Every structure is written in structure tokens, then in C-alpha cells.
Amino acid sequence: MKIVKLKKENLFPFLEEISKEADLWAPTKVESDRHKFQAIDDLDQIDIEYTRTILPPRKIILPPTINMFQASDKEYKEDFSHVSKKIIFGIHPCDLHGLLIMDNFFTHEFYDPYYMESRKNTLLLGHSCWPDENCLCKSTRTHIIKEGYDLFFSKIDDTYIVWIGSSKGDDLIRAKEDLFEEDISDKDIKKYTEWGDERDKAFQTEINFDSLRDLMELKYDDPLWKKVGNACLACGSCTNVCPTCNCYNIQDRPVLGENYSEIKRCWDACTLENYSEVAGGENFREKRSDRLKLWYTHKFQVYITEYGKPGCVGCGRCISTCPVDINVKTVGKSLDGEKVDSFWNRLDKEVTK
Amino acid sequence: MNNGKLKIGIFELTGCAGDALLILDCEKELLDIFKAVDIQVFLMASSEVTDEKLDIALVEGSVSTEKEIEELKDIRERAEVVVAIGICATVGGIQARFTDPKEWENKYKEVYGDIEMTHTKAVPSKPIDAYITVDTYLPGCPIGKDQFLNLFTRVVKGNLPERYPRPVCVTCKYNENDCLLNKGIACLGPLTEDGCGSICPNHNVPCFGCWGPVEGANLTSEYHLLQEKGFDIEAIKKQMANYSGTKLVEFFKQLKKESK
Fold first, then answer.
1. Which residues in chain B have their CB less than 8 angstroms from residue A257's CB?
2. Is A67 part of a structural domain of the chain?
3. Which CATH architecture has domain B6-156?
4. Domain range for residue A138?
């Protein structure tokens, strides 16, 4: 792998150059503590000192609603209007791992053209970060990234160490080669490794993901599930903010004044009540506890069997989102035998369903 | 006249007529709407009405008088498909928020005293499905343009819409808002049916439930969560009752039992 160096003041000229050929997306500050990935018109909108965005970058590749095709009794017309050349700058390692899981999922058994066409047209430019109290990526071993990016920017003081992860990434560098330096000194390497050691020490939360796979199975009937089921508001937020959730629903929308329908693909969430409802009104997971068990089985167990790593990348979004404290931290620790202080543990109420 | 078009009636019972107004406000699509169907009754648009059989009746408003009960039953007889539109028709609206019949009687006396009504008798407000079978529902206060056009188009093309109720939180997350409950603001998003585009939370204003309660809402958990966060219990109950019409009566009875 080739590694180059970029002075901090050369970052924007570089982004300026590469955004001529594609739409540039990057994290922006919406409120004091709220960030989201947005298409960038003005580079000053970028706020790279963020911890996590509300939605993960998968929303850029596959937005909440897309039109898949138009259909009438005579014609079928595919619609790939969500696909365009994009560059996403500033993705943290956890989210890059999330996209690697998505890539795997959408090609593993069946090739999903709606995801993959968009994904193939998107370049991923990673960026280093610093953990807060909700970051779990060291426990999921997703705090480091070795593949899945085109370029990765590690910020050390006023310099970026830029890791080139693909030939497309290399092409980007070549578009403005004179901005980069090749001589990485021993001093730079020392600074980089010291930064890595400090960063690793900054994690405040650890979860034993190795044991969770078995615990999920051993404690499938644990009273814990009833408790979280009682408290769950069934709002779907944990699912919608998760970088590895990928379920969707198809909606048929006839168009007024035309003889065709638009077939829409919309994000869906297994934690919502209607998700498991089938024709005839039967619902396989009417109980909130059953839906949560399904979600956590996917995060803690099934993905390890299927893809060799957990379905959780430790981004901490479910922790900062769930209003009743149901998240990988409290559920994981509770499965591991720890008594956790959380609303769902305090709520001493039987709730129907 | 039989031009092969579906015959439609749009009716208004007790409510603010906001839903009928919204239909009329679909200016860009209005010509397509009139082209697609034959509108027989739509008082908001024309005083000319017929009493012919209808393919589809859209009914707005709650049932608040004996006369309206008769009117509604007549609509059911006339129409193949009946759609309840707006929060008043679907759950009863603000005017149905009384949790016990005594409360209604007292309020009625307070407002009208002993005046005897001659043209009809008032009854406690109820959603239209308290009296007739409803084929499908479109909640909202008022209904959303996009949802109305989606439902309307499906119905005129011969398909009832597939109801897929979800809480406001779903769209709120798509809009990348921070959860207001986590900021210590009493938001009813998780209890309320989606459709508004999370317009209030988008502006840091909590959801106050105007689309009505969503199927499968966990009222007990949110109630206790707000209580734990230090909100006044009576204020929470009032807020939950505001737009839930008759739908949360059982829940409030349960709460009363618990607090005894």
C-alpha cells in the first residue's frame, strides 16, 4: 500500500479539485451537537471534528426511498436515478466497516443492483477520529481499517497521513499530485503510532463481543428480553440509525393521470410492529421482545456465522438514540451478567404485547 | 350520466373542514382529480349535490349529533367504499377527548345550559367507525397532500391502499433530528402515526400527537418515561388525550386503576 502526506492547508484545494468530477458529501454541523452527511456546495460547510452523524453514510448510497422502476401492463422501465458519481469524505472506520458489511450483504447470495450500482459509483474517503463514551469500536475491533476505503486520512497535528486503498484512490491523488509529499519520516511514523496508542487508551466502554455470540443463544429466554420488550417504544430508531441494517419494503404507487405505477423501495425496520405482518393479518413478531431478540441476534450472533464478524460496528448510534436505553451497550453488558442502570431496568411495569 | 368514471362523494361531519380544504388545495393535481372521477358531492367546492349511488365516499369529521348518525348511515348505504379522512373521522378528534361520559354531560350543560335543541340532539363525539364499517383510514390533522393523492389514486384505480402505520420517529430519524425525548422534551413522536414529515421535531418543537395514536404504541412505557423525567402526570395525560379521541380510553382506565 502506498502512503503519502498532505499538509492540512492543502486538504481543501485537494477536495476542491476532486469535487469537479463528482458530488462531494461530507459531515456538516447542523446544531451544536448534531452532525449529518450532506452534499457539499461550499467546503466551509464541512466539520471534520465530529464524533458521529445521526444517520450512517449508507443513506447516501441508498436513500430512505428510491424509485426502482415504472410498471404498466405493457411496459417495465428501470429507474436508477439515485445513482450518480459521489465522493464521501470524512467517514470514520466504524462506518467504513458498516459499508463493508453492506457490500457483503448485497452481493453475498443475491446481487442487488440498486445498492451495488450506487456503491460502485461512490468513492470512500475515510478519516481518523477520537472516541467518546459511547464508542464501542475497539470492542468490535472496527477502530482500525485495512480495506474498504479509497483513501484514508489520519490526522496528526497539522498533517494528514494519507493511506491509498485502491487504484481509484490513487487516481484521485494523481489529479493534484503536487499537493502531496512522499517522504514520510521516522518522526511522522513515531507520532502516528503514539497517536494510535493514546487513542486506544481513550476508549471508555468495553464489551466482550466474543462471548455475546454464545450468550445470545444461552440466554434466549432470559427475563432480560421481557424487560426490554416492556420498555421498547417500537419507534424503529435503533434500526434506522444502524450502519448495518438493510431491510426494506416495496410500495406500489400508481400515478394519477398516468397508466403506470411507480415501484418504490423504502427503508424498513424489524423493530416496527408491522414489519413481520403477512397477508391475512398474521404477525410473526407481534411482541416487542421478539422483535428486539431478532435485532440483537443479527447484531451479536448471526452475522458472525454468516460473515465472520459481528453485525455491530461499535458506532454508538443506538446508544445515543434510544430514549429508553435499549442499546448494544446495556443489552450486551446485561447478557454478560452485569447489572446495568437503564430506564428499561428501572421500569417495573408489565406491558401488554 | 354514465361516463364510465367512478362516482365520488366528499362529506364533512363535525370538524374544521380542513381535510376538504386540503383536497381543494391540491391545485396542481386538481384537473387530474376531476378528470379521473365524477364528483357528485363536495360542498366545499360546489353547492350542487346529488343523491345518486356512489363508488367511493370520503368522510371527514366526527359524529356529534343524531342527525349526523343518520347522514353517515345514509352515506354507507350509498357508497361501495367508505374512507375515513382526517383525525376527527378516524379517532374522533379533539371533540371526542372526554375519557368518561359524565365529563361530556357536565361540559354540555356548562356550554348550552338548559336550552333545548330543536333540529337535532347532540351526542358525545365519536369516530365514524363507531357507527358504520369503514374500508380504510387516512389520519392527519389535516391529512397530508402526498398521502391523500396516493390513497386517492389507488382507490380510483381499484385498489384499497395498504395501510402501513409507523410512528413519527421513523421520518424524524430520516430527517436526522436528535431525539427530543433525550433532550428532556416531552415528545409524543413514538405514540403518534407518521405522515406529517415530522414537521414539529424538525423545528425542535415536540410532537403533540395530531395524527392520532399509532397502532402498537407503547403508551405505558412512554408515560412512565415522561414521569421519570419529571413531567407533571396530569399534563402528560392531557397531552396524550388531546388528539387520541376515543382510542386511548382503555389505557386511561388502566392508569386510573394502577394509581389507586
1. 29, 32, 35-36
2. yes
3. 3-Layer(aba) Sandwich (3.40)
4. 3-201
Do A10 and A136 reside in the same domain of the chain?
Answer: yes
> Closest partner residue to A257 among B32, B173, B217, by Cβ?
B32
- Residue A176 covered by a domain: yes
- Cα A87 to Cα A41, A281, B58, B174: the distances in Å are 13, 43, 48, 21
Domain count along chain A: 2
What average pLDDT does the structure give for chain B?
92
For an interface test with A, the pick among B31, B156, B169, B240 (most A C-beta atoms closer than 10 Å) comes out as B169
Average pLDDT of B147-155? 93
List chain A residues with CB under 8 Å of B220: 230, 349, 351
Mark yes or no for CB contact A346/B182 under 8 Å.
Answer: no
Residue with cell 451478567: A337
- Write the ipTM: 0.95
pLDDT tens per residue across span A221-240: 999 999 999 999 999 999 99
Question: Can you read off the three cell numbers belonging to residue B72?
Answer: 353517515
How much is the average pLDDT of B115-143? 93
| Averaged pLDDT, A270-282 | 92
Q: How far apart are the first and last CA of chain B?
A: 63
B174 and A55 in contact by Cβ < 8 A? yes
Residue A334 belongs to a domain = yes
**Strand A261-267 and strand A248-254: pairing?**
antiparallel
Q: Does any domain span residue A177?
A: yes
Q: Which of A127, A110, A130 lies closest to A25, judged by CA? A: A127
B227-245: average pLDDT: 90
**Confidence category of residue B255, pLDDT binned at 50, 70, 90:** confident
Q: Do A323 and B150 touch (CB under 8 A)?
A: no
A55, A267, A269: residue with CB nearest B176:
A55
Answer yes or no: do A45 and A194 share one domain: yes
- For residue B76, the SS3 value is helix
B215 to chain A: closest CA residue: A273
Nearest to A236 among B35, B169, B215 (CB): B169
Q: At B23, list the grid cell.
A: 383536497
Inter-chain touch B221–A320, beta carbons under 8 Å = no
N-to-C CA span, chain A: 54
